[in-house]
Amino acid sequence: MTKYFEDAGFEPGDEDIHFHYKAESPTAACQDGRETIITLRCDVKEDKRGTIDLPPKCPDGTCDGCTFHFLWRSQHACPVCREEDYDVIVSECIAGEQTIHYYPKKHCMIINDEKPTTKKKKCSSIPFAIEIGSMCALSVGLLLLCLVFYCWKKNKK
């Protein structure tokens, strides 16, 4: 079926959906009957109705008068975006807040804004390991200071 599609001048797409209709009854012009191939192609930029393209090599929709080709570009041919279909980009931590951006891939459609395009999250500018390390260093420093003060007080007499 894709051979007919390419012969008509269309570029094949990985996500295309082909509907093939065949009328077996012969006619004077078509001994094997007539065929119609409607190909749905995902295009998220199209409006609700989409656009129907005729083959570039056959502007009447048919090259032989028996096989008709139509390419219907529509957002309804796109799969619905799932969790794994988003590219997630996490920004830096600025003033204790981090912005997470969700970008859908080109081949899927967002339904009813199921995923926000941006989300804010609280964060710390200092990594957790550095926070723990600095707390430990501060505690050891205070302990040593207390020990020095204790030794000074004891040896003062």
UniProtKB/TrEMBL annotation:
SUPFAM superfamilies per UniProt: Mannose 6-phosphate receptor domain
Pfam families found in the cross-reference section: MRH_ELAPOR1_9th
Transmembrane segments: 128-152
Residue ranges of every copy of the MRH domain listed in the record: 1-80
Location within or outside the cell: Cell membrane
Keywords: Cell membrane, Disulfide bond, Glycoprotein, Membrane, Signal, Transmembrane, Transmembrane helix
Topology of this chain in the membrane: Single-pass type I membrane protein
Superkingdom field: Eukaryota
GO cellular component: plasma membrane
UniProt main location, coarse: membrane
Family: Belongs to the ELAPOR family.
Protein name in UniProt: MRH domain-containing protein
Organism: Octopus bimaculoides (California two-spotted octopus)
High-level lineage: Eukaryota, Metazoa, Spiralia, Lophotrochozoa, Mollusca
